[in-house]
Amino acid sequence: MKKTSLFVLLACCAALIFSSCASIPKKAKPGDTLVIGRAEVYSHDYISLYGVKVNGELCYNIEITIKDMIHGGEKIIRTNEEGFFCIKGLKPAVSYGITKVLYKSYGSDGAWFQNSVLINNPETFIPYDNMVLNLGTTHYDFDGKKNWVTWRRMDTEKVKKYFLDLHEEEDSEWFNKEIIDW
Questions:
Q1: pLDDT tens digits, one per residue of 79-111
Q2: pLDDT digits over 129-140, tens only?
Q3: Interior CA angle at 119 toward 113 and 120, to 5°?
Q4: Which residues contact 180 (CB under 8 A, 6 or more apart)?
Q5: DSSP readout, 120-136?
Q6: Cα(102)–Cα(41) distance, rounded to whole angstroms?
Q7: pLDDT value for 170
């Protein structure tokens, strides 16, 4: 009984830690924040082992670590099939940064490849009370030959369009809020 309860507790905690917005929250209470964005990884010049695709473009299930740069807490989120993510519940008017990006590729026989980058001096963003902060798309280039990762932020329009297109599927007060591009 104790092992089952512990397993259920750990499973629930993992679901909270690794959740991104499966859906946009319906209500926007005072003090609520919503951050939207998209991540894409392009990896090249890595040696392919055991049939695992390690080179090419990837958007799905990228793990992103968001750090509270003032108080030190972290939140881990994952991208959806198209690389989009949203983060709800960050403290308003607090500085946050993306401090780690991780991705895994799987082969047909269960073999896998994992790669990540720690970002020591991240660009920071500040969510605002009852506004949607659009981080846009961040492109991460993993170079296996140079053992180097570069990244650049790109268009915010694609993320904004994706978010607003969700309005047709979901009903939320967030679709009526001001969207601020980072």
A1: 999 999 999 989 999 999 999 999 988 877 788
A2: 999 999 999 999
A3: 140
A4: 128, 131, 132, 133, 134
A5: SS--EE---TT-EEEEE
A6: 9
A7: 77
